[in-house]
Amino acid sequence: MSDLFQGFVQALMLIFTIDGDLYAISARSLQVTLTATLIATLVGIPFGAWLAVSNFRLRNGLIILTNALMGLPPVVVGLLVYLFLSKSGPFGVFNLLFTPSAMIIAQIIIILPIIASISHRTIRSLWKEYRDFFISLNATRWQIILTLVKDSRRSLITAALAGFGRGIGEVGAIMIVGGNIDHATRVLTTAISLETSRGNFHLAMALGIVLIIVSILINFLMHLSIKSKYEQIDDRL
Fold it and tell me: In the CATH scheme, what architecture does the domain 28-198 have?
């Protein structure tokens, strides 16, 4: 118990003394995951909305596939991305393997089905409620999608946060495609795994604390932003 307490104290000292390596790893984690979340959100929300308001033969199969991909094993994603980006792969010419770009690609593949599936379910409910109204206005499909996305933006931000939470805690896929290279592709989760295997529990604990703080802080800031926007709308009304 004393070793655990000592490790916790050392972890806090690393955090509050602004350890350079610790904050560089944290910044890289945020860069990779926020970029992947942003791209996945920009693609996933319109795709989920399009699924919600469209009607075509393969629609149900596409919805089932999107929902199934929410449980896609990250190590399988990492393996596939590795094969595509390796020297013998179709995209090896771009030399993206073992770079932050490869990690972002892997995280996008993992995050995208989550955001798309939640967006589909959210917008589908609104579409059922206001379908007749939109038909009476003779609105185009993209006008409908833009209106539904705008009206459900609060729930859709929650979908983006769910994707961010999945990405910031990912280790398997980014370990494979990033290589956990010091000062290049090492992020919080891979660093925790490495330092634990080395027996540097105080550093691993410090990284874990920072990971939790970052996740909570991003969620807090987003919800604070949502609350502020809705308070402004209420004041106008």
Answer: Orthogonal Bundle (1.10)
